[in-house]
Structure formats: C-alpha cells, structure tokens
Specification:
This protein is an alpha/beta fold. 33% of the residues lie in helices and 23% in strands. α1 packs across α4, α2 runs antiparallel to α3 and α12 packs parallel to α13. The chain is built from 15 helices and 19 strands.
Length: 508
C-alpha cells in the first residue's frame, strides 16, 4: 500500500505543467528534425526550422513554446492499493496544481479557460478547472499523463458515426483537408474508434499522449489492425501534400495514433483529434516517496539549426509602405518585417466594427492607414521582456471583419496563422492588400523580433487590446498576395501532385 500526500500530488501537477510549457517531448524534436532534413519545399522547410529554433529557445529561456498555453487535460490512473492523505478530491488537487502553474510569477502562462461557455464566457483567470479522467488500475502507484491542449488544434477535432461497412481511411483522407492549417502541422493525429461517441473521443485524446514511434513500427512491420491502420494513414495523409503550416510539403503528420474499444453492432464511432507543432505532454508516477522528479532534457539534445536566407527572402520596413510596393510581393515569398505594426484579435475587431457602425470612428490614437495588423494575444511579459511569447492566431476567426477593415480603415496587410476563407481571399485581391503568415508553434521566436510594445487602445481587453509593436526582422511568408494567389491552395495541390509523380517514378 502507498500513501500519496496531497502536497506531493499538487506540486507534481504544477511542476509538470510548467515543464511542458517550455519543453517539447524529445521524440517530437527528433521527428521534427527528421522531417526538416527530408523536406523539399523551401517554405515548409523554413517553417520547420522556425519550429525547431523556437523549441530550443523556449527550453533555454523557460518560456512557453506557444502563446496558447492551452486547457489542461489530465489522465490519472490510481492503483487499487493506493491511499490518499488528502482532504481534497483528485479533481480539486489537479485544479490547484493548475492554478499554481498558470500563475507562477517566473513563467506566467496565459489563462484561456472560460466559465459559462454558452453565456457570459468569463475567464476563470487561473486556467482551472482542468479536464480530468480517472481510472482505477491494479497496483500501489498513481500514474499521471498530463497535457495542455491549445485551441488551434483542439478546435479542428472531428467526430463521425460511420456505418459498420464504411472505410475509416477514406473518411480520414476526406476530412483532414477540411481541417485547414490552423492545427499547425506537422503534428500528430489521434484517432479513437469504437465504444460510444464520448468513449471514442477519450480514446483519441489518450492516444495522443503516446510516444512517437511510427518509424520503428514501419521498420518492424505492423501486426495488429490498429498498427496497420496507423501505417496506412501515416503514408496516405502525408501524400496529401498539405505540409508544414499548410504550405505544401512532404510531411503533414509525424505520427498517427490509434486506440479502439469494442462497440455496438450497429455502430462505428470515430473521433480524430490533431496535436499541433506545440505538442505538450509528460508522464510521471507517484509511489508515496515524494513529488515527481521531472528530469530536464539536455540542450545538446536539440539540433543546431539556422535559418537560411534564400533568393526569395526580402527585408522590408513597413513604415510608410504603399500598396504599389506590395504589388511586387508574390505568394510563397519570405519577408522579414521591420517597423511598426498594430495588433488585434476577435474582441478588438468586434469593438471596432461596433464603433464604425455607430459612427464613432476608430479609437483615439489608432490609425490603420497603410498599416499591418497582427492577429495575436500575447503571454504577459516577465523580467526584461518587451512582450511574452506572441505567436499568431488562426486567421479565419477574423475573416468576417476583413472586408470592413480593408474597405473602411485603410488597412493594407494582415499577419496571422494558417489559411483564409475564399471570400476573404477575394476581398484581399479586390483591395490589393496582402495576407502574411507567421509560423504557429514559433511564439517565443516571433516575440524576440518585437523590440518595443505599447497598448494604444482597448486596454481593458487585456491580451485582446490593440498594441503597437515595433518589430525587427519578424519572419513571415506571403500567403495571399495582392493578386489573390493563395499558397494554402497552390502549395498542397502542387506537392500532392509532386509526391504522386515521385511515387510513380519509384514504382516504375
């Protein structure tokens, strides 16, 4: 029998959440490096370089890999011979550990959890409560798997109730392209099959906690139905050509995980949940001897990667830039931005829309004429930081405001993550504007390009306020140019055809 003390459990949860905020699992780092080495698309290769450089920087600086520090998901498996020295429930202890981790003054994490989700959507301010799954298992230990799941990937989850005769592979290959690039590939797909609808979802989530081992599986050969499905999907999803950040390329997924459970004779529930490039999870055990010991990885475990400035890289000062200058930018170009840009996300855009509708005009001190807006909600700064990790927000959330911003405010450029919708692309073309893509999963790297930051409007909105950032060599890719050429359409289409061509040559 083991006695698990309340304080040991809470401390272990808090330490684990801090740990995963800045340490990638090394299996992810190794898999991403292998993908970087074999990537043939320069834009995707650069995105992978940024992800790996950001990973090392976060490990060095003990600051978040991604500005979206997630909602906590915790699987707790309790041995039947375990006793608790605690006046709190397991849920309460996980929540307390979460609070301590997210309000740590040395590395504060962005609170993203909202209570009353169908109503007031009020931020709980400490990221509690966590989502906790509890299982009773044989033995005298407590096994914990804990993750922080960002909205960008989590929000792309898909659920379907297939007929028993339907093909799972067919459904996945049809569905993955509909997820866009907001889930920040390359990452992992977790697929749960069977049980009931909610069981399939839990299986998919739990599958994502497993070690990346697809190459080992391919080398030894799949044996079970689940293993065969993993290898088949890994091969076929990568052949879609979606690539890193949806730019087109050879690697879309680093692994595919599958877990299944017996199901009703008339049912075939399937849930697919993606893990993004900011994959964050850790596993530990408690046996009553004290809190978990989480051994930091060595910095030498990270590859030394530098970004290469190719022929399609240009340095641009955005202060005073005109639409005429934008006309020379082509979809797929890499641009290093310097100068002053404004920020704003959903809440700021909604408030601007209401002000313009009411005839109030823009807030005092805000002028978007011939300027760029960056879709970002940064982590709070600490110590000598200008701003905390400040990676891009999924841009489709701002699509409904884009025509207004381009048509009524004088805005000429936007910076965000992943693709834009067809109407937005058409609006960009009509207004001769541009949309630039920053890499999701490189938040700390991007933040280092921000040299000054000040709030210019809507201070009451916190991270949703309008900031003015002064940036130096901020790396972005031209996703939609002023002619409406869209790399999130052309890139995957080209690389899917290229992969098919290469496969044809290899098999002939």
């Amino acid at each position: 029998m083991s006695i698990i003390k309340k304080q040991d459990f809470i401390d272990s949860i808090a330490d684990a959440l801090q740990y995963i905020s800045y340490y990638h699992p090394l299996d992810f780092v190794q898999a991403a490096k292998a993908a970087y080495d074999r990537e043939a698309n320069p834009a995707a290769k650069d995105a992978l370089a940024q992800i790996l450089i950001n990973s090392r920087m976060s490990a060095e600086g003990h600051r978040p890999l991604c500005q979206d520090t997630g909602i906590v998901t915790c699987f707790v498996k309790i041995g039947m011979q375990v006793q608790w020295d605690s006046d709190m429930t397991v849920q309460e202890m996980v929540d307390e550990g979460t609070r301590r981790a997210y309000t740590n003054p040395d590395n504060p994490l962005r609170a993203s959890v909202l209570a009353d989700p169908a109503g007031s959507r009020k931020n709980t301010k400490d990221n509690a409560p966590a989502v906790v799954h509890i299982d009773m298992i044989p033995g005298n230990k407590v096994e914990v798997s804990i993750a922080a799941k960002g909205g960008g990937s989590e929000n792309k989850s898909k659920m379907v109730m297939l007929n028993p005769s339907d093909d799972i592979v067919e459904w996945v290959l049809k569905t993955v392209p509909t997820m866009g690039a907001g889930w920040c590939p390359p990452g992992m797909l977790g697929i749960g099959i069977g049980g009931t609808a909610e069981k399939a979802a839990v299986l998919a989530k739990e599958a994502l906690m497993e070690h990346i081992d697809i190459q080992e599986l391919i080398a030894r050969g799949p044996q079970t139905t689940e293993e065969k499905l993993r290898v088949d999907l890994y091969d076929k999803v990568n052949k879609l050509g979606i690539g890193a950040q949806g730019l087109g390329g050879l690697t879309t997924v680093l692994d595919v995980k599958v877990k299944s459970a017996p199901t009703h004779a008339a049912s075939k529930p399937v849930v697919m949940i993606p893990n993004c490039a900011a994959t964050r999870h850790v596993h530990f055990e408690l046996d009553g001897s004290g809190p978990a010991e989480l051994t930091p990885p060595k910095l030498s475990d990270w590859p030394e990667i530098t970004r290469e400035a190719g022929g399609n890289v240009r340095r641009v000062n955005v202060d005073g830039i005109t639409k005429a200058e934008l006309a020379s930018w082509k979809s797929g170009d890499t641009v290093l931005l310097s100068g002053k840009i404004l920020t704003g996300r959903d809440a700021a855009h909604k408030r601007i829309a209401d002000m313009l509708k009411n005839g109030e005009g823009l807030p005092e001190g805000v002028d978007f004429t011939n300027r760029f807006i960056y879709y970002v909600g940064p982590v709070d700064a600490v110590r000598d930081e200008v701003v905390g990790p400040a990676g891009p927000t999924t841009s489709t959330r701002m699509d409904k405001f884009t025509d207004m911003m381009l048509g009524e405010t004088g805005l000429i450029g936007m910076i965000g993550k992943s693709e834009r919708g067809p109407k937005t692309v058409e609006s960009i073309k009509q207004h001769k504007a541009v949309y630039l893509m920053a890499v999701g999963g490189a938040a700390y790297l991007v933040a280092k390009a921000i040299k000054k930051a000040r709030v210019v409007a809507f201070a009451d909105l916190g991270m949703e306020a309008i900031y003015e950032f002064e940036v130096e060599d901020m790396p972005v890719t031209v996703a939609v140019d002023s002619e409406g050429n869209n790399i999130h359409e052309t890139g995957p289409a080209y690389w899917s055809a290229k992969i098919a061509e290469l496969d044809g040559k290899l098999s002939s």
